[in-house]
Specification:
alpha+beta; four-stranded antiparallel sheet; 134 residues; globular; Beta-Lactamase
Length: 134
């Protein structure tokens, strides 16, 4: 596989996320972005909250622009933390779980996923299923 997030790859990995979401009984919005945070693919499952659309996209963008889980950025941006207030930059970031970098087999970051629609631990579990499917 190339390091690009092409249509075939994104369709397959979003399907893995949808399967994981269906397995826990939660409708999710799943966003895939490239390393610049630009939208590559998006899917909102039937019944997913409308608010989860924007949140999933911001989670993905957060993990693309700062290649780390969005939850880690959240830990660092708590009051008194080294990057307190960072979520107000870059057009709005998300500082809780559900965003993960996506890496090729060689470890090269090729983009990110953002998942929203459930509790944070459910969003993280579905994002991990997507990342594993890469």
């Amino acid at each position: 596989m190339s390091n690009a997030l092409n249509l075939e790859t994104t369709t397959r990995i979003i399907a893995a996320g949808q399967e994981a979401a269906a397995g826990i009984g939660v409708a999710m919005s799943i966003t895939i972005v490239d390393t610049a945070g630009t939208l590559v693919a998006f899917q909102r499952m039937d019944g997913a909250w409308l608010g989860s659309v924007d949140i999933s996209q911001r989670k993905a963008r957060t993990s693309a622009l700062f290649p780390m889980p969005s939850a880690v950025l959240g830990e660092m941006s708590q009051p008194g933390g080294p990057i307190y207030g960072v979520e107000a930059t870059n057009g709005g970031l998300v500082s809780f779980g559900g965003g993960l970098p996506l890496a090729a087999a060689d470890g090269t970051v090729i983009g990110a996923v953002g998942v929203s629609g459930g509790l944070v631990d459910q969003d993280v579990a579905v994002a991990e299923a997507v990342a594993k499917a890469v």
